[in-house]
Amino acid sequence: MGRRMGDLQLAQDNILDGGDAVDWSGAGLPSFGNWPAPLQISAAIVANAPGPMLLLIGPQAILYANSAGVALIGSCADGPVLGRPIVDVLPRYAELFAVALVRAARGEGTSFRNHELRCVRDGVPGAAWFNLEFTPVLDANGLTLGVLCMASEVTHHVERARELAVARKQLELAVILADAGETETALAESRFQFDTLTESLPQIVWSSDAEGRHDYFSRRWTEFTGIEPHEITEDTWKELVHPEDWERVWHAWEGARRTGEPYDIDYRFLHHSGDYRWLRVMALPVRDGRGAIMRWCGTSTDVHDAYLLSEERQRLAYELERIANWDQLTGVLTRRAFFERSEKIIVQLAREFGRVSVLMLDVDHFKQINDGYGHPAGDAVLSLTAKRMDGLLKGGDLLGRLGGEEFAVLLPGTAPDVAMAVADRIRSAIEVEPFAIDGGVRISVTLSIGVASGVACEGDLERLLSIADKALYQAKSGGRNRSALVEA
Fold first, then answer.
1. Contact, 82 vs 19, CB < 8 A?
2. Among 114, 129, 153, where does a domain finish?
3. Which residue in 231, 237, 305 sits closest to 269, CA to CA?
4. Which tens digit of pLDDT belongs to each residue from 293-316?
5. Which CATH number covers residue 140?
């Protein structure tokens, strides 16, 4: 499970990460406290993220970022970055953001892999490579409020692939020289060049013979494992692989040696600290003139931090799904989620010629509750009402908040008389026991309920809701605190 909403709601000063100096009104946005709940929660996610993360708000994609995101964007742009449209901040990448924003407007996410960004670091301009993940932030009705962007730097990964190719060429050269019967001096020179290259790389460089027996590790091995070269045996590396990963690792390594295909796998490896860290391990075969594999040349790169970011992305995806699907106040389905899930159920029922019923429920005189007890009490009434209703429904039924004090229930496979019985049971349960609000206040609540029931037809939800709304009007006109049925 992801963290609860309360775990993410930070104080405004903390969330805005120094944003007090940002004139959000000048960017056409309200103050942070008046942002829609999905944007506030998304801002909290951004502020808590360990790596660079951006929130692009509204049609103009106004930029909010955490400190790591500000540092990254600031290295690619001139002047202040927060509170400005992203295309003004980074005009060089306007096309990239345009693609992401157009897709987000359709409710779709976008990924860019190994994307090059021009940055200035320590006063020196240069290139860096990132994986960019864009995820839309939706309101309860499915409308796009903004876009979250998580940036994971993969510069070392890109450079490693290039360096591995260079290392392979160096090793191939040594094999070719030896095979050609060149002098020992030439072979020694080639080996010297290979050793110089591998010892300068940030990754562990290793090699094995054609049978997979490891016979070389660069000094990065000792730095990572704490094991000196003279202490290494053929089984050492096997003993350091996480037990849960070993079967997968061995299967992949044996498969690569058998087929001659490149070896590429992530697994956990024991660090000298005593903790397991994720490594990305790649290897390529070195072949002789006849195509037979002579050796394997590989690299192992510490990608543990990238895995932590991946876990953060999964948490982010969970939080965004929760925001889109579950009403933040009541905990029931949002309007958008209720419609989507109901439509799927109705399609299935239509194939089976089944029946379906819909309830439209409205809290009677809710404005008087808000005016008389205050909006916090009104919010508490909605939350407690939803909780009590949910407890009376079956597992296959759906409960959603359509907006304000209005709720809807889908009752699959339910005949009109059963639907009316469910409506009356809900209405009675709400009426019989007043809600206890903080401060010892007890508020009596009643519901008016409209019921529509008929044979399920694909795409029929809107019509059923319209009929249930007419029935709801009848219930209110008849004095409220009652249920009314109109057959579809």
1. yes
2. 153
3. 237
4. 988 888 888 888 778 777 777 777
5. 3.30.450.20
